[in-house]
Every structure is written in C-alpha cells, then in structure tokens.
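Support reply, case 0932

Customer input (verbatim):
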Amino acid sequence: MDDCIFCRIAAGKAAARLVFTDDDMVAFHDVNPQAPAHVLVIPRRHVASLSAARPGDRELLGALLLGCARVAAELGLDAGYRVVTNTGPAAGQSVAHLHFHVLGRRALGWPPG
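Our regenerated output:
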C-alpha cells in the first residue's frame, strides 16, 4: 500500500531509524517520541489495526509481541517498559497500520490516558 507510511517503511521505501527487522516485522524509533525510549513494532504485511486482525493472524500477533520484548532487551529496558497499541482515531491511532509502541526510560503513570 503506497499510501501507508508504515508499509513504505517496511518495504524500505521510506527512511526510519531501525532497531531490527525480520521476515515478519520491522522495529524503528518513533519520530515523535513520548518517552526517552520509544520504538514502534509493525508487521510487514498491512493490517489496519488490532480490530482488523483475524484468527489467521494469531501467529503474527504473537511474533509482534515477542518483537516488543526483543526491542526492550536490545534497548536495555531492564527497569521496565510499556507496550501500547491504539485502535481507532478515538484511541489515538494516527496511522492505519497495526503498530505497537514500546516505551521506557521514564516513569509511566497509571492510568495511561
């Protein structure tokens, strides 16, 4: 999908500060960080949001969560981190491509919103 910035990043057609890539996903630093450590983990395949995921995406969703844990390990977020996904504009989803935020290196209050 050429109109999706995350699809372009996943295809290597748009620049991003990569943390890692594999066959299923791409992890890169957020251009508008909300914490000292703020990385996005996205599937290479376009899935619009968590609510657009289907039963056949079960393995991909598990891989993405493991990717979030890998990001945290690679960034040394031993003191803790938060993983967030926003679904729909009312929840703050600004790019219609499933993505997980990995946030850390600052105190993250509760409730989050």
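We compared this against your earlier run and they match. Two observations from our side: The longest helix spans residues 58-74. The chain is about 20% helix and 20% strand. Please reopen the case if you see a mismatch on your end.
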